[in-house]
Design a protein that fits this description.
0% of the residues are buried. With 39 residues, the chain is mostly helical. It is 90% helix and 0% strand.
C-alpha cells in the first residue's frame, strides 16, 4: 500500500476529488438549463 501512496500523493487525490465534484456540479447546472429550456 505504501507504493500506491508514493505514486499518488495525497494532494493529487484531493485535486481529483475536487475536479470530480466541480464536474458533477457543472453537469447538474447544464442539465437544469436544458430541463428549464425544454418547458
Amino acid at each position: 500500500m505504501s507504493d500506491m501512496e508514493e505514486k499518488f500523493p495525497r494532494a493529487l487525490w484531493v485535486r481529483l476529488i475536487v475536479y470530480i465534484a466541480v464536474g458533477h456540479v457543472f453537469a447538474a447546472f447544464v442539465y437544469l438549463l436544458f430541463e428549464l429550456g425544454a418547458k
